[in-house]
Design goal:
Length: 111
């Protein structure tokens, strides 16, 4: 079963780095919630709720990095419609300035 994981970055440079090394960035972000603005915490919570509650992308693992309204989506989904759904859901949230979609679609190999 997949899950939605949302991390709030304190600096925009971490969002760019998240595209390259998400595990390292996530480890560095576990501490420091006190230095993240309330606005970013609320935005992260809204994104987590919106993605977690949508049945079209249920069971997919998507990592979301938030920094000052800039969002990076990382993960793998089963088909293109799920990738588009995640992107559209996040873009529709008030407070989101820009979305960088790094979600990939799994390749299905015929049996």
């Amino acid at each position: 079963m997949g899950k939605i994981r949302v991390d709030v970055c304190r600096r925009p440079a971490l969002v760019a780095c998240a595209c390259q090394q998400p595990k390292r960035v996530r480890r560095n972000l576990k501490k420091g919630w006190d230095s993240v603005s309330l606005k970013e915490q609320v935005l992260a919570g809204v994104i987590r709720s919106r993605l977690s509650e949508d049945k079209r992308i249920a069971g997919q693992t998507i990592d979301v990095f938030v920094s000052d309204g800039d969002i990076v989506l990382l993960g793998t989904v089963d088909d293109e419609s799920q990738r588009e759904t995640a992107d559209t859901l996040v873009r529709g949230i008030v407070g989101v300035r820009e979305v960088t979609d790094r979600i990939t679609v799994r390749r299905h190999i015929p049996a």
